[in-house]
Amino acid sequence: MSMDFSEFRRRLGAEPRSKDPDLLRARDSAPEFAEAAAEAEALESRLERALRLPEPDGLVEGLCALPGSTVRPRRRRWLPMALAAGLLLAVGVAGIDRLLHPRWDSVEAYVIDHYYHDGVKMLAQEPAAQDPARIQAMFARFEVEAAPELQRIVGVIKICVTPDGQGVHMVLNTESGPVTVIYMPGTRVEDRERFTFDDQRAVLVQMELGSAAIINAEPQDPAAWQAFVQDTIRPQAGNS
Amino acid sequence: MSSEPGRQANFRALAETYGADLYRYAMWICGDDALAKDLVQETYLRAWKALDKLKDTGAAKSWLITILRREYARTFERKVPKFADVETVVVPEETELEPDDRTEIGLLRRNIMNLSKKYREPLLMQVVMGFSCEEIASELGISKSAVMTQLFRAREQLKSQLQRDGVTGNVHGLF
To answer: Among A84, B17, B84, B130, fewest CB within 10 Å belongs to which?
Structure first.
């Protein structure tokens, strides 16, 4: 019994590349069927093209190196050991220690880890004025908003992993140079705790709905931005 | 049990064969590059620990997807926002496309991320991971017929949305 057009479309929509003989026979049975098959193939090609995302550099090498580097469970990090040799030159002795030991036992450990994971790349990007609506949309996910004076100096921004889920990672364009701010929703810190790593200075800031890490290169003092960050990332109306 | 070098070799083969596709799959379910990488890394860490349980290498793809989906559900599902990084991804070859084609890809990506999970997941398993309808049914714990219906509806929704977005047969021979 031949396949009716409705069934043909349903099967084509489910498996456009099917080589099922019944389907192929139906396709060749009438122009209407052949046209539907051609349309399905066109959509499939476009779908494949849209879904094709580039493989991150070092992905497979990093995965292959996992058994030797992280037999111990948990705490996420993404510094492929295969690529680590070159990186280690840059991060120094403290970096070696971080690569070989479990992470995120503290917010401080997270900040250092994340800085090498993403912060360096963020700083390397060309800063550009960001769409205020985009900035606001990112913060709105975490029920906070960015004040206009903060929006004006955001040069690079993205959502990133934080100790309690996700947060906002920014590079601010300031007169004294780039300042990295990582907003960490829901994360509690010891307010004004300072620490240094390599040539970076950092301070943690407790805020109403989360906390932030402010990081910049020596000799700048990140604490100079503490009040600014606390004042310009604030709960959305009704969430304080 | 395999020797340690044997385990390492098996693991490497899994990473080389499926790592990139798992990353793409993860990107499309969570929409965030950093989270996708974390998901894949965690998946492979778990796979390494449980590698001896994988008796049939032919089942490796399904096994890895199962681990990844569980990890996603366990850790991220409630926290992950709808589409983020995938919207802005530009594959190198896309820079050579005509503006209309680039626009169409952008619309299609947005629409894929807007599909409900029920439709998006089987579609990703099929197109990104190359699963058959039977494999998808097994992974999702539903019938093959239900999978076929979901795949059909997913494509119908994408087609309708593209038409609503103004991507017409006049330009692309699509509809």
So the answer is: B130
CB contact under 8 A, A53 and B105: no
How far lies A198's CA from each of A36, A121, A229, B70, in Å? Answer: 62, 16, 23, 38
Distance of CA B130 to CAs A51, A139, B13, B61, B110, Å?
A: 12, 37, 18, 10, 21
A126 DSSP assignment: P
* ipTM of predicted complex: 0.81
Chain B contact set for A10 (CB, 8 A):
148-149, 152
**Do the Cβ atoms of B137 and B147 come closer than 8 Å?**
yes
Q: Convert the pLDDT of each residue in A188-227 to its tens digit.
A: 898 899 999 888 999 999 998 899 999 998 888 898 999 9
Q: Which of A73, A160, A166 sits opposite B79 (nearest CB)?
A: A166
pTM of the model: 0.56
Nearest C-alpha of chain A: how many angstroms from B44?
7
For A132-185, what is each residue's pLDDT tens digit?
A: 888 888 898 888 999 999 999 999 888 777 887 778 899 999 888 899 999 999
Q: Does B88 touch chain A (CB under 8 A)?
A: no
Do B105 and A49 touch, CB atoms closer than 8 A? yes
How far is the C-alpha of A201 from the C-alpha of A174, rounded, in Å? 16
Select from B19, B161, B64, B49 the least CA-distant residue to B104: B161
A79 or B79: which carries more pLDDT confidence?
A: B79
